[in-house]
Amino acid sequence: MNKLLRFGLLFALTVVFEFLTLSTTTLAAETILTGKVLATVMRAEPIPFHAVVDEICVKPGDAVKKNQPLLRFHLQSEAERILQKEITLGANTEELRGQILDLEREQGRLEALCNKNRQLVASGLGSRQALRRQENELKALAERANLLRKTIKKAQDSFANRLRELERYYTVPLSEGAMLPTGSLILPSPLDGYVLSVQSIFPGSLLAQGAAPIVVGPLDPMLIQVPVYEGELKDIREGAEARVEIPSLGNKKFLAKVAEISWVSNDMNVAQPSYFTIKLMLNNPQLELKPGFKAVVRF
After folding, report:
1. Bigger pLDDT: 26 or 89?
2. Cβ-contact 242, 298 below 8 angstroms
3. Residue 139 belongs to what H/E stretch?
4. Which of 129, 143, 162, 219 has the greatest count of CB atoms below 10 A from its CB?
5. In which band, very low, low, confident or very high, does the pLDDT at 230 lie, cut at 50, 70 and 90?
6. What's the pLDDT at 21?
7. C-alpha distances in angstroms, 83 versus 9, 86, 154, 237?
8. Strand order in the sheet with 193-198
9. Spatial contact of 221 and 85, defined as CB atoms under 8 Å apart
């Protein structure tokens, strides 16, 4: 009985020792990294005019669809005068059209002269050399007229594109030479997503051309970037799974996958250790994760 007891005790100690050894090995092999949660895309639609804010239509956290109004504004006086002049002038191809008319008139004159000289050459009374010069000149006039027509077409297409661009802000059709619509313009959302931030602006605030006061981006999936020491990089592969803990959410755990591994060190100074950026993707269907949250990543 004592032998059996000793054998059982020895067996139990062996199992415990192997378990502790395995646990220590596993812990030693685990790679723990820290990084930040980021949105995969962050877009801020710039205002293409000097503007005055009429109304802010969204707040941080709001879900938005592409082209949904983010804010309403009207043009500053000088900006409106400049834009009205642009619409009034339109493609501004009148001078080019006049040049084409002159060329067509000259083409008609040369064509009549060529026909007359062809008859003279056919009867043996005209100069073939003079006829060839006139035909070459007629051909050059036709080519020049075609180039002008192409230039006019490009100008018209460019202005049509400009009108379509302006219609995003006015939300009504625009036409060449017409008066600009009255009322507010909108700043449309550049994509489907959520409002991530709004600058401190109020009705009546002045916005310079190019200002981008509202940032929009998707929140599902999310991105995590972590720096990895060169010695640990060999154990990480694209597509590998990692466990993520978010301290801000009470160390709630998520599952992420490695989407990209940098091929270049963050610091090429030979005296400094080399770290490589790893990007991980994780789902966020409940929108619990927010850009800027600290993340602890375990491989």
Report:
1. 89
2. yes
3. helix 128-170
4. 219
5. confident
6. 45
7. 91, 5, 20, 54
8. 43-44, 214-217, 193-198, 63-64
9. no
Burial category of 265 from C-beta neighbours within 10 Å (exposed 0-12, middle 13-18, buried 19 and up): middle
Other residues' Cβ atoms within 10 Å of the Cβ of residue 101:
10
Read off φ and ψ for residue 6, nearest 5 degrees: -65, -40
Examine the pLDDT at 122 and tell me if it is beyond 90. Answer: no
Enter the pTM of the model. Answer: 0.73
SS3 (DSSP) at 118? helix
Q: Are 277 and 226 in contact (CB under 8 A)?
A: yes
**Contact of 61 with 195, CB cutoff 8 Å:** yes
CB of 117 within 8 A of CB of 126? yes
- Looking up tokens 């812990």, which residue turns up? 27
Q: How many residues does the chain have?
A: 299
163's tokens:
């009108």
pLDDT number for residue 130:
84
Beta bridge partners of 73: 53, 185
> How far lies 25's CA from each of 16, 84, 296, in Å?
14, 74, 21
Q: CA-CA distances (angstroms) from residue 173 to 124, 164, 180, 181, 246? A: 64, 8, 10, 9, 49
Residues with Cβ within 8 Å of 156's Cβ and at least 6 positions away in sequence, in order, are 91, 93
- How many other CB atoms are there within 10 angstroms of residue 4's CB atom? 8
**202: CB partners within 8 A, 6+ apart:** 53, 56
Indicate the residue type of 142. A
pLDDT in tens, 144-180: 999 999 999 999 999 999 999 999 999 999 999 999 9
Q: Yes or no: say if 241 and 289 are a contact pair by the CB < 8 Å rule.
A: no
| Token pair for 61 | 């956290």
74 phi, psi to nearest 5 deg: -125, 160
